[in-house]
Known about the structure:
Chain A is α/β, with parallel strands linked by helices.
Amino acid sequence: ISPERSPALGSVQSPAPSSVYLDYNATTPLAPEVAQALGEAACQAWGNPSSAHPAGRKAKELIAGARESLARMVGGRPEDVVFTSGGTEANNMVIHTALRHFRESKGQDRGTPHIVTSSVEHDSIRLPLEQLVKESLAEATFVPVSPRSGQAEVDDVLAAVRPTTCLVSIMLANNETGVIMPVSKLSQRIHALNQKRVAEGLPRILVHTDAAQMIGKGRVDVQELGVDYLTIVGHKFYGPRIGALYVHGPGTTTPLHPMLFGGGQERSFRPGTENTPMIAGLGKAAELVSRNWEAYEAHMRDVRDYLEARLEASFGKQRLHFNSKFTGSKRLCNTCNFSILGPGLQGRRVLAHCKTLLASVGAACHSEKGDRPSSILLSCGIPYDVAQNALRLSVGRDTTRADVDVVVQDLVQAVAQLGEDQAS
Amino acid sequence: MAALGRAGAALLRSGRGAAGPALGYHKNVVDHYENPRNVGSLDRNAKNVGTGLVGAPACGDVMKLQVEVDENGRIVEARFKTFGCGSAIASSSLATEWVKGKTVDEALKIKNTDIAKELCLPPVKLHCSMLAEDAIKAALADYKLKQHPKKEESEQKAN
Lengths: 424, 159
C-alpha cells in the first residue's frame, strides 16, 4: 500500500487514551452498578431509616440488604457488620475498643495496655498509636518487616507480645509494596496463646486486620483469617467513600466500644442517622466482589505481570529494581512497585514528565512529602537511593494490556527526556 | 469475529479522514491485513484439532486460533479468526503461518517478541503480539488435553 494511503488507515485506529489511570490502590472509581444503586437510593429511599412509616422502612430495608452483602463478602454474619465513615474510623474504633476493654477487664492494676503492630501500617493505625504513646495512655511496638520477605513475620510479632498486650493489628496487604501478611497463621498462634493467657489471668489479645487493599483483589474470609476485627474500605473496591468494621460477635464474643454517642443507630456501636445512599452503594460493591473477585484477581494479575514483563523488556534488568518482589511472600495481584535506577530519576520527577500515566510513588496521603523516599520501602530494606526512585503502579479491573503498552511507552519517553535534561 | 477482507481494506482506502499522522502501519502489517493467510475454521470437535480462544471483546481484542496436528505431532494446518485492530489481525495471521510445519513443542517456543519484530510493531501494539502467543499456547494446550484427557485431570487434581 502506498504511503499516501497510510493516513487513511491511521485515522480509523482509535486514538490513544489521553490518560491511563494506574493508581487504583489510591482510590477506585464507582462501578457503574454502584453509582446506579447509590443514585436510586438517594432519590427514592431518603427517609430516616429509624422512622416507622414506609419512607423510613424503605431505607431501613436497603441498609439491611447492604449489611447482608457485606457479611457475605467477608464470610461473616450480618450482625457482625457495623457501618462507619471509612477505614480510618474503623481502625480508630478497634484501637479505642482494645484500650477500653483492657481498662475494664477484671483484675487490679494491670498496668499500661500494650499494642503490637507492624512498621508498615497505614497512618490510621500508626498515628493513633503514636498519639496514645505520646499521651502515655498506651505502649506500642512497631514490629519491623523482614527485609527478605517484606512481611511482618509471625515469630517476630509473637516475640513482641507482653503480658500487658491487648491488641495485635497487622494489615492484610500493604498498599505500597503489595505484600500480603501472614494474618491466618498469626491469629492461629494468638488463639493458642490466648488460651494459655486466660488460664494465667492475663488479658486476651484481640486480633485486627486492616483489609482495605485486599478486598476485591484476593480471597478475604474471616473464618480463614481467624480475626476478631476486619476493616473494610469502600473506595478501594469500586465502592463509595464509606467503610465498615467486621466484628466477630460485637458486644458478645468480641468487645466493641463506641467512640460516638447518640441516636442509637448501628445498635449504638456507631450512632448517627445512616448514610443510606452510600450504604446502598457499598452493598452493591460488595455484591460485585462476592460474585467476581476471582475473575478480577486473575485479570489484574495478568495485566500486572504483563506490565512487569514490558518494563523489564524496555528498561532492561540492570536498570530496573522491583520493590514489590520478595521471596517467600505473596503479593497483591495488581501492584507493581519499581524503581528505574539512575541519578535524577526520582519517582515524582519521572511521573511529572509522563504525559499519560497517572500513578503515584506511594500512599496518596503522603504525596506532599517532597523527595523523601517512602518510609515503608526503607523499612523493607530497600536502599535509600533506590527507594527515592520508586514508582507505584496499581492496575484496575478494566486496565488492559493495551493500556500497559501506552504507559510503558510514556515512561520510556519520560526517562529519555530526563536523561537529556541531565546531560544538558 | 473475522479478519476484514478486501472490502474492508477498500473502505479504508477510500480516504476517510484527512490529516492523519505521518506514521502509518508497517508494510508487513498491511500485507497480512490485505492478504490474510489462513482465515477460517477447522472442525473443533476433531480429536487432532486444538482450539485456542483468547482475549475479550471488552478489551477490543479476541483471537481464535486452531491447529490440526498429524499423527507424528506435526502441525499440518492452521486457521485463525480475529476481532481487533490491524496489528492484532497481522499477529494472528503470522502466527498461523509460523506454526505450520512445526511440531507441537517447536510451536510452543514461538515468542511474542519474534512476532512483534517480524511485523515491526510499534510499542503501543506489542500487546497484540502477546495475545497471538497466548492464542498459540491455548490452541496447543487444548490439543494436548484432547489427547490425554484423564492424565490432565489427575495432574490438575494433584495441584
